[in-house]
């Protein structure tokens, strides 16, 4: 059997590693193909930044932001991990990009619109 599954890209601060894992599991069990972050730079993987000089950090951050937008391109929709309503500048940029490219945007927590 080959199903027709929607693809969703998870967006949000990588400080919310546990929530990313939980949402990924829940959406997978609902029949979504889930695209997530490559590592958690604000959580347990934060030590990766310690090995980089400032210029390399800036270039790596730009590259990771661009990669995530390509992940959004591959998806039908995005799911924002906005714990306690938190949406940082990178995530806000991803939401704007998703809206601009016609992707549906869902949120973990109600944004009160």
Could you characterize the architecture of this molecule?
- There is one protein chain.
- With 113 residues, the chain is an alpha/beta fold.
- The chain has a domain at 59-78 and 96-106.
- 41% of the residues lie in helices and 16% in strands.
- Helix 2 (54-74) runs parallel beside helix 3.
- The longest helix is centred in the middle third of the chain and has 21 residues, at 54-74.
In this structure, how is the largest beta sheet organized? 4 strands, parallel
The percent of residues in helical segments reads: 40-55%
Structure classification: alpha/beta
The helix-strand sequence is EHEHEHE
In DSSP terms (H or I, runs of 4 or more residues), the helix count works out at 3
Taking pLDDT < 50 over at least 5 consecutive residues as the criterion, the unreliable ranges are: none
Mean pLDDT: 91
